[in-house]
UniProtKB/TrEMBL annotation:
Keywords: Flavoprotein, Oxidoreductase
Superkingdom to which the source organism belongs: Bacteria
Coiled coil segments of this chain: none
InterPro entries membership: Aldolase_TIM, NADH_flavin_oxidoreductase, OxRdtase_FMN_N
Pfam family, one: Oxidored_FMN
One function term, GO molecular function aspect: oxidoreductase activity
Domain NADH:flavin oxidoreductase/NADH oxidase N-terminal: 21-235
Source organism phylogeny: Bacteria, Bacillati, Actinomycetota, Actinomycetes, Nakamurellales
Protein name: NADH:flavin oxidoreductase/NADH oxidase N-terminal domain-containing protein
Species this chain originates from: Nakamurella alba
Length: 330
């Protein structure tokens, strides 16, 4: 819930008015001071590396009262896009970011991602897109991009990149790692039969199409354990206009929550939309034509699935003020 008070002192004065919103919550091995989340989102403030403007942007969210500040997507390898995780770790960017966010009283989570067939092509990013299958897409509704269908070796290399990136983040002062399983990115491309038309062990049945996500989770857990940092995922709760895909996303959330306790994620963050068309992108970046609490019903459904597991469920999408947030948390 990304709307925050204008200052920490204001948040203290309003905690009696919104008792649930301003109550602490346990998230894996950490405790957030409240339930206000600055979720990961693009800022266009830095050209592929953290800079002072981006540090200040994220620091201000913490000083404004957020309990958790999550970075925009950081890429698990150089060919995926901007903000290469290993460079940011080596440069000390995550330590600097965490120091500033902690000074503001918040936890600092790093979101890691691979866009698959989505994303910019070019010398600063990558020469070609990769995906489970050679299914075209229009990034931001622009020019058609036809991805290269990944080989077995390429799939295993990306799983290793996810695990290595998460492990590298644990060497910094950051509090958590969030893997992006939504917004039409690579993991969701493996999940959906629209974009995964493989006939090997990575495609076909639900079990095969979810194998990539399960392997990523298992590889990361093997590297980071269960008590170093928070480990969560961002997922799509619905596919507007596509009931079959929405049902699939429901099953995917249930599968994630039903994983062995040693592998289970510490939280799920429910969102929606994708970047493979202009229409899909509009749900990622909802303007005032969309209703408040855009993904309320989807988040409530996942929350009900998680009720007896102690797994917090985050909700995003036009949470326009503390009164609405308090109602959603009730």
């Amino acid at each position: 819930m990304s709307q925050v008070p204008t200052s920490v002192s204001e948040s203290g004065s309003r905690s009696g008015e919104f008792p649930v919103l301003f109550s602490p919550v346990v998230v894996g091995p950490r405790v957030s001071r409240n339930r206000i989340i600055n979720s990961g989102h693009g800022t266009s403030l830095a050209p592929g590396r953290h800079n002072e403007e981006l540090f200040l942007y994220e620091e201000t969210r913490a000083r404004g009262g957020a309990g958790i500040v999550t970075t925009q997507s950081q890429w698990i390898n150089q060919g995926a896009g901007d903000f290469d995780v290993r460079y940011e770790v080596a440069s000390g960017a995550y330590d600097e970011l965490a120091s500033r966010v902690h000074a503001g009283g918040a936890l600092c989570f790093i979101q890691i991602n691979h866009p698959g067939r989505q994303g910019f092509l070019g010398p600063r990013n990558r020469e070609y897109a990769v995906a489970p299958s050679q299914v075209p897409g229009r990034f931001y509704g622009g020019q058609v991009q036809i991805p290269h269908a990944m080989s077995e070796a390429e799939i295993m290399a990306v799983i290793e990149d996810f695990a290595g990136s998460a492990e590298a983040i644990t060497t910094t002062a950051a509090d958590g790692v969030e893997i992006h399983f939504g917004h039409g990115n690579l993991v969701q491309q493996f999940l959906s039969p629209h974009t995964n038309r493989r006939t090997d062990r990575w495609g076909g049945s639900f079990e095969n199409r979810t194998r990539f996500a399960r392997e990523v989770i298992a590889a990361i857990r093997d590297r980071i354990g269960g008590d170093k940092v928070v480990f969560g995922a961002r997922i799509n709760g619905a596919a507007p206009g596509d009931p079959a895909e929405t049902a699939l996303l429901n099953d995917f959330a249930a599968m994630l929550l039903d994983m062995d306790p040693g592998l289970r994620l510490d939280y799920l963050s429910v969102t929606g939309g994708h970047f493979s068309s202009a229409w899909g992108t509009s749900f990622n970046l909802p303007d005032s034509s969309f209703p408040p609490a855009l993904w309320e019903s989807q988040a409530r459904r996942v929350r009900e699935q998680a009720r007896d597991l102690g797994v917090p469920i985050f909700q995003v999408g036009r949470i326009l003020g503390p009164a609405l947030a308090e109602r959603l948390l009730a």
